[in-house]
Specification:
The protein is α/β, with parallel strands linked by helices and 332 residues long. It has helices at 14-25, 46-50, 68-78, 97-107, 125-135, 140-144, 164-170, 180-190, 211-231, 242-260, 264-284, 287-317, 322-325, and strands at residues 4-10, 33-39, 57-63, 83-87, 91-93, 112-114, 117-118, 159-163, 195-197, 203-205. The longest helix is centred in the last third of the chain and has 31 residues, at 287-317.
């Protein structure tokens, strides 16, 4: 059977760490190690970890702050098992998470894999609405995909597994602070490694707890995509520009109404709004989440679209280097 090392890079977030470790303590298959990399937290995480020392095989390391990618690389170097499982500190896993990973690896040989994320019943309404916006087929969730039928799946670092030998061959995560996980996936492809999607290993992902933080996060994701396109041009898709076209289309709809007093384009956005509302309401069985999901979806598409447009102009029109245009997107 495959041997597994779960790597958690964390900065502060002790309450979330407790919930994650608690969910790992309930695993039906307990044969795995946990590598916790404290990325320079100002909060003492040791008391939280000590609660689980007797029931989990935990190795704890503290280092100076460098960001999640390099911290995951640090943890990977400390891991002793064949497979590296990366999870974010703000997720909760189901009790058969490890068991299902091992079954999937045996049944579907690969070099790396990822799983979906979803909202836990205990999440608040905004978190559930944001989760919908990030995973729905009617937003960029449909673009990044979560189906086995996808020819190439890009695992995300909140729920990602990589064979240690493959991870070491490509040098682990790059110097990108944001977008480092799809960057790793495409680097694996370029080295003839394959990635896949495991349907049975979804995690509960808290994400951001308010719309302001969510907007800033997806804006940064949008900025990262043209950088990724430049680094990996053979994997560029026109669908990556969809949020920007959505944003520009909305601006065009407003101008159409102001200049020509026509509402045709606005009516299309109205139809889209109705689809999001009813789909989110149906998926969550809650009309309040349906309403909030409309807000979350527009925030996601507008913020991502603006970030993508700004980055595309900086890289392709102004001809700036990514590190010059977006220094905070890279480790120094």
């Amino acid at each position: 059977m495959p041997t597994i090392s779960v790597i958690i890079a964390i900065y502060n977030r002790k309450d979330e760490l407790f919930e994650l470790l608690q969910s790992l303590s309930f695993q039906t298959n307990k044969s795995f190690e946990i590598i916790i990399v404290d990325d320079g937290s100002i909060v003492n995480l040791v008391p939280t970890i000590d609660n689980f020392k007797e029931i989990l095989d935990i190795k704890y390391f503290k280092k100076s702050n460098s960001g999640p990618g390099l911290s995951r690389n640090f943890g990977a170097a400390k891991a002793t098992n064949d497979w590296l499982i990366f999870v974010d500190s703000d997720v909760i896993v189901e009790k058969n998470y490890i068991e299902n990973i091992k079954k999937e690896i045996v049944a579907n040989p690969c070099d790396a894999f990822g799983g979906a994320d979803k909202a836990h019943h205990g999440f608040n309404l905004v978190q559930k609405a944001i989760s919908y916006a990030m995973t729905s087929v009617f937003t960029t969730g449909g673009i990044r995909g979560s189906k086995k039928s996808m020819s190439k799946f890009q695992p995300r670092s909140f729920n990602m597994g990589v064979k240690k030998t493959s991870f070491e061959k490509v040098g682990g995560f790059s110097n990108m602070r944001i977008g480092e996980d799809p960057d790793l996936s495409m680097t694996l492809w370029e080295n003839n490694f394959n990635t896949t999607f495991f349907d049975s290993i979804a995690v509960y992902h808290k994400r951001r707890v308010d719309f302001g933080k969510f907007s800033k996060q997806v804006y940064q994701f949008g900025c990262a995509r043209p950088i990724l396109n430049q680094r990996h041009p053979q994997f560029v898709k026109i669908s990556f520009a969809f949020p920007t076209l959505f944003l520009l289309g909305y601006i065009g709809a407003i101008l159409e109404y102001i200049i020509f007093q026509h509402r045709f384009i606005l009516s299309l956005y109205g139809l889209y709004t109705i689809v999001i509302f009813f789909h989110a309401t149906y998926k969550n069985k809650n009309i309040s989440i349906g309403s909030l999901a409309v807000i979350a979806s527009y925030i996601q598409l507008f913020s991502y679209g603006y970030g993508f447009l700004k980055s595309w102009i900086a890289l392709n029109i102004q001809r700036k280097k990514p590190e010059e245009a977006f220094p905070n997107h890279f480790y120094r």
